């Protein structure tokens, strides 16, 4: 159980990553991914990378610079401009629904203006899901200068779009609906220099 724990990616740049195992029964037509990160990186870095054999950026949360997040679905992305962080924990949730092609982005419990992305698309179910690296091929093809360095926690993936109440609940670490990937019951494998440690502060 990773309750009140974090993954510490110790090196910069790094070849380390964490593989997440999710039980996906079928392709995704809706999803929400949430996580909390703490880093002093100013270079580009990957937070959550979900690749299929057909598409390496099937789902990707990527931060090219401190004041910008990119959210990819099926190789296409939308950009959300954010205030440059004050070197504190940042909680992000990104959700997408195929029927409307609406991409939602929440930062620290607040929604950003919604954007359009990949209407009618379906996200493949046979996936390599990694934290800490950006996949350029299925389960690999890493660029060290897109690697994450710092601390990650509270990683979740749902096969639905979360309601605004649940988005805020995720930010506040309150009770959440059952998920494909849930931090408190995460099935994972560490590859390289990543250490599980207690969270230093709430």
TrEMBL record:
Molecular functions (GO terms): complement component C1q complex binding; metal ion binding
GO biological process: acute-phase response; innate immune response
Locations listed in the record: Secreted
Disulfide-bonded cysteines: 34-93
This protein's UniProt keywords: Acute phase, Calcium, Disulfide bond, Metal-binding, Secreted, Signal
SUPFAM superfamilies, per the entry: Concanavalin A-like lectins/glucanases
GO annotations of cellular component type: extracellular space
Main location: secreted
Database matches in PANTHER family: C-REACTIVE PROTEIN (PTHR45869:SF7), C-REACTIVE PROTEIN-RELATED (PTHR45869)
Family that this chain belongs to: Belongs to the pentraxin family.
Name of the protein this chain belongs to: Pentraxin family member
Source species taxonomy: Eukaryota, Metazoa, Chordata, Craniata, Vertebrata
């Amino acid at each position: 159980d990773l309750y009140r724990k974090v993954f510490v990616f110790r090196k910069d740049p790094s070849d380390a990553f964490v593989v997440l195992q999710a039980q996906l029964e079928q392709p995704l037509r809706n999803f929400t991914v949430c996580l909390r990160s703490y880093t002093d990186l100013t270079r580009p870095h990957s937070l959550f990378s979900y690749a299929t054999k057909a598409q390496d950026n099937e789902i990707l949360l990527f931060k090219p610079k401190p004041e910008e997040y990119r959210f990819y679905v099926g190789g296409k992305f939308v950009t959300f401009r954010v205030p440059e962080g004050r070197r504190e924990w940042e909680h992000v949730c990104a959700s997408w629904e195929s029927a409307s092609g609406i991409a939602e982005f929440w930062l620290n419990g607040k929604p950003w203006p919604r954007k359009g992305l990949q209407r009618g698309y379906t996200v493949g179910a046979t996936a390599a899901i990694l934290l800490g690296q950006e996949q350029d091929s299925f389960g690999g093809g890493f660029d060290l200068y897109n690697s994450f360095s710092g601390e990650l926690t509270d990683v979740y993936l749902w096969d639905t779009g979360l309601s605004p109440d649940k988005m805020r609940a995720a930010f506040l670490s309150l009770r959440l609906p059952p998920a494909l990937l849930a931090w408190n019951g995460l099935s994972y494998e560490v590859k390289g220099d990543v250490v599980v440690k207690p969270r230093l502060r709430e």
